[in-house]
Design a protein that fits this description.
about 210 residues; mainly beta; outer membrane lipoprotein receptor (LolB), chain A; globular; disordered N terminus; OM_lipoprot_carrier_LolA-like; Outer membrane lipoprotein carrier protein LolA; LolA/LolB/LppX; signal
Length: about 210
C-alpha cells in the first residue's frame, strides 16, 4: 500500500512538472542536491493549501499540515470526507464514506523524502533540467526499493524560505506508473502545529 491508494478512489493526476518548469533547458546551481537537503533539514513544519488534479482535469482542494519528522495531514475537506495522516511511523488513509482505513509504513512511500529526519539525497536523487533558473527539480527513487515509487519535487528559489528554497509541489509515481500530483499555495514555514493535528476519528464501518 502507498500514497497512491488515494487515486483508486479519487484521482490519477497529471504531472506537475510541466506546469512548474515549463520545459527542458538546463539551469542548475552548484550542489543543488545539497541545497535541497539543507532546505528540507531547515523545515521543521509547513502548512499550505493544495490542489490535486487528475488526467481528466478533475481537481480536489484541501489543506496540508506537515511536521518533520514523519508527521503529515492532508485534509480534503467535508466534501471529500477523507484524510491522509502520518503519525511519525505510519501513513493512514481514512475513507469515512465507506468506513474503512488503510495503513502502511512511511518509508514505503515517496513522501518519506519529505518526512525523513535526516534527508540524504545523494544515493537516490538527481537533478532534472528546468527551463526557469529559479526552479530546482529533484527526482528521487531508491534503486534498491523500486516498488516504493518515485517522487519529483519542485522548489522555487526564495530567500525567505528555509534554505532559500520554497517547496512548490511534487509528482509521485507508484510501481505501476500511476501519478499523484500536488501543487502547493500559501506556504507557511516553521509555524506551530499542535500534535493532535496528526490524530483522526476512527471511521464507522458500514453494513
Amino acid at each position: 500500500m502507498s500514497l497512491f491508494f488515494l487515486s483508486a478512489r479519487l484521482l490519477t493526476p497529471a504531472a506537475v512538472v510541466a506546469a512548474l518548469s515549463g520545459g527542458a533547458a538546463v539551469a542548475q546551481t552548484a550542489n543543488p542536491l545539497q541545497h535541497v537537503e539543507r532546505s528540507l533539514a531547515a523545515t521543521q513544519s509547513l502548512t499550505a493549501d493544495f490542489v490535486q488534479t487528475d488526467g481528466r482535469n478533475r481537481s480536489v482542494r484541501g489543506t496540508l499540515q506537515l511536521k518533520r519528522p514523519g508527521r503529515v495531514r492532508f485534509d480534503y475537506g467535508a466534501g471529500a470526507n477523507m484524510l491522509l495522516v502520518g503519525n511519525g511511523k505510519t501513513l493512514t488513509f481514512i475513507d469515512y464514506d465507506v468506513g474503512q482505513k488503510n495503513s502502511w509504513q512511511i518509508g514505503n512511500s515517496p513522501l518519506s523524502i519529505l518526512l525523513s529526519p535526516q534527508p540524504n539525497l545523494g544515493r537516490i536523487a538527481r537533478v532534472l533540467p528546468s527551463k526557469d533558473p529559479r526552479v530546482v527539480l529533484i527526482r528521487a527513487r531508491d534503486p534498491r526499493r523500486p516498488e516504493f515509487g518515485t517522487i519529483i519535487m519542485a522548489f522555487v528559489k526564495t530567500p525567505s524560505a528555509p534554505g532559500g528554497l520554497l517547496l512548490e509541489g511534487w509528482t509521485a509515481f507508484d510501481a505501476q506508473n500511476k501519478r499523484t500530483t500536488v501543487k502547493l499555495d500559501n506556504q507557511r514555514y516553521n509555524v506551530a502545529i499542535p500534535e493532535n493535528a496528526f490524530s483522526y476519528a476512527e471511521p464507522k464501518r458500514r453494513g
